[in-house]
């Protein structure tokens, strides 16, 4: 692959920068326990992350990716989950290896950086601060910051406008088909991490422009800003 020369880089959060599944699993399982129902464990929860907190709660209630829970079950479960995750946003969550080095490289190479996640803002901001990477980002767009979230292109296009960059000059780094769809719809380039959450499916099937194993590999893929 030839060196990319974007003018802005946006990073997804869960499964790209932070392995948040240990906290999300703890909260899903504690919620299920409070509801008097069996826990799911990390392997199941890992396949359910990526479309925001509401969908995660729905999936835990029905035990699968697609479909809707009973509205009364959801009304009971959602506030329980939110309270649990507010108290366990970063207790067990860690940066993936190479993330800090990758962000350092992008910053020193002169890129405006944004974080675009489907996680609700009340959790995104503390998580970024608590894992020590909030200051890399000139803009953070959460799942509830705008009327539509990924896979809609809206949050990506909002970030491009914010930084005054044409979508065709923008690069998204993600881990899921949701990120690939949003990037394609926005006209961005898209590189995916091999290690993230994509509902148990190999991200190569979504055909991003490249798949990498560590954010540090960006050194060999994107050029410094002129
Ligand atoms: O599903 C979520 O809450 C967040 O997922 P994302 O950071 O990968 O967009
Ligand atoms: Mg993700």
Automatic annotation (TrEMBL):
Transmembrane segments: none
Pathway as given in its UniProt record: Organic acid metabolism; glycolate biosynthesis; glycolate from 2-phosphoglycolate: step 1/1
MF GO annotations: metal ion binding; phosphoglycolate phosphatase activity
Domain of life according to the entry: Bacteria
Cellular-component GO terms for this entry: cytosol
Entry keywords, A to Z: Carbohydrate metabolism, Hydrolase, Magnesium, Metal-binding
Residue sites binding Mg(2+) per the record: 12, 14, 175
Active site: 12 (nucleophile)
EC number of the protein: 3.1.3.18
Gene Ontology biological-process entries: carbohydrate metabolic process; DNA repair; glycolate biosynthetic process
Cofactor list: Mg(2+)
InterPro entries membership: HAD-like_hydrolase_sf, HAD-like_sf, HAD-SF_hydro_IA, HAD_sf, PGP-like_dom2, PGPase_prok
Recorded catalytic activity of this chain's protein: 2-phosphoglycolate + H2O = glycolate + phosphate
SUPFAM superfamilies: HAD-like
Family statement drawn from the similarity comment of this UniProt entry: Belongs to the HAD-like hydrolase superfamily. CbbY/CbbZ/Gph/YieH family.
Described purpose of this protein according to its UniProt entry: Specifically catalyzes the dephosphorylation of 2-phosphoglycolate. Is involved in the dissimilation of the intracellular 2-phosphoglycolate formed during the DNA repair of 3'-phosphoglycolate ends, a major class of DNA lesions induced by oxidative stress.
Protein name per its UniProtKB record: Phosphoglycolate phosphatase
């Amino acid at each position: 692959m030839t060196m990319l020369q974007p003018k802005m880089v946006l990073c997804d959060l869960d499964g790209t920068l932070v392995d948040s599944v240990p906290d999300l699993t703890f909260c899903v399982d504690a919620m299920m326990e409070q509801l008097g129902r069996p826990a799911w464990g990390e392997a199941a929860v890992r396949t359910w992350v990526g479309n925001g907190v509401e969908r995660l709660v729905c999936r835990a209630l029905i035990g699968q990716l697609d479909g809707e829970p009973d509205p009364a079950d959801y009304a009971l479960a959602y506030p329980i989950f939110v309270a649990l995750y507010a108290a366990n946003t970063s207790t067990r969550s860690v940066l993936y290896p190479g993330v800090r080095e990758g962000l350092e490289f992008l910053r020193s190479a002169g890129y405006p950086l944004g974080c675009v996640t489907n996680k609700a803002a009340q959790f995104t901001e503390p998580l970024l601060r608590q894992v020590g990477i909030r200051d890399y980002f000139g803009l953070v767009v959460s799942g509830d910051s705008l009327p539509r979230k990924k896979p809609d292109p809206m949050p990506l296009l909002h970030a491009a406008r914010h930084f005054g960059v044409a979508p065709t000059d923008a690069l998204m780094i993600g881990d899921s088909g949701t990120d690939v769809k949003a990037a394609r719809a926005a006209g961005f380039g898209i590189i995916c991490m091999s290690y993230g959450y994509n509902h148990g499916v190999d991200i190569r099937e979504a055909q991003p422009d490249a798949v990498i194993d560590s954010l540090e590999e960006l050194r060999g893929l994107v050029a410094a800003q002129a």
